[in-house]
Amino acid sequence: MSTEAFVYDAIRTPRGKGKKDGSLHEVKPVNLLAGVLTELQRRNDFDTAQVDDVVMGVVSPIGEQGSVIAKVAALKAGWDFRCSGVQLNR
Which domain holds residue 42? Predict the structure, then answer.
């Protein structure tokens, strides 16, 4: 196991769905995260097969944000299926 870690970039999503008539109200949390991962890969042009872990900070991991949202978002973004995903909540 390597003891090195690399952070290529940091991107964040809006903090929530907002109002019922807001532009992001219908967007699912996993789609927000998949968009972040797609943009991260586009900005830095790396092979997702070389990524060991996707680590996501999720403020309220309940409902649609719960479960294995980092892994599901990585798959939805087209990342290599061998990349694992984990979410952190402080």
Answer: 29-88
